[in-house]
Amino acid sequence: MGAVHLSTEKLARGFLVCLCLWGLFSLSCAARSGVSKQKFEVKKHLNRLNKPAVKSIQSPDGDVIDCVPISKQPAFDHPFLKDHKIQMKPSYHPEGLFDDSKVSTKSNEKEMHHIPQLWHRYGKCAEGTIPMRRTKEDDVLRASSVKRYGKKKRRSVPLPKSAQPDLINQSGHQHAIAYVEGDKYYGAKATINVWEPKIQQQNEFSLSQIWLLGGSFGQDLNSIEAGWQ
């Protein structure tokens, strides 16, 4: 009876060991499968974002700038912009907004105040192409998910009426803004000077932008944004 009892106990222990090993093996396979799936999604997303370039320029800060044909930029991947005709210059200006002397003066001012980008030291994109910073795998992995990369959270920008300098809201969003409201705007410009912005966590970022907004902060918001992030 003693021998039978020991034999049964050994079998039970052996079964438990096998069960644990099988569980660990399953978890390992699931983890590898999850990593492989994530890498596949990241690669697919990068292929969608990084368009074939006519020319690539290595920037001193480590970025790669791709000169992409203007018609191939990611914005035109949207189904509503299929076969969109690109208008390089406005066909007309609102009456009374500009006259010939003002247009000439503003063109000269633009040339005088032109600030080159760091990568311009090693070349520029030809006419008919646009510069696009090549998105890297690390850029995508810093996002909360692959699908969320490059997208802003809804209502991440406060309503102007509640905006105060250096305000910190419940989500930890720190911001300072200046805004003006009016009837019609045909353009805008701004001088932005930010010195050594600091971040503490990998999911943090700094941005400095000028926006032209139309609609409300609900479903019908349209924005044109320029600056850096």
Automatic annotation (TrEMBL):
Keyword Signal among UniProt keywords: yes
Coiled coil: none
Isomerase listed as a keyword: no
UniProt KW keywords: Signal
Record-annotated Neprosin PEP catalytic domain positions: 167-229
InterPro entries: Glutamic_endopeptidase, Neprosin, Neprosin_propep
PROSITE patterns: NEPROSIN_PEP_CD
Signal peptide residue numbers: 1-30
Domain of life, per lineage: Eukaryota
Annotated protein name in UniProt: Neprosin PEP catalytic domain-containing protein
Protein species of origin: Noccaea caerulescens
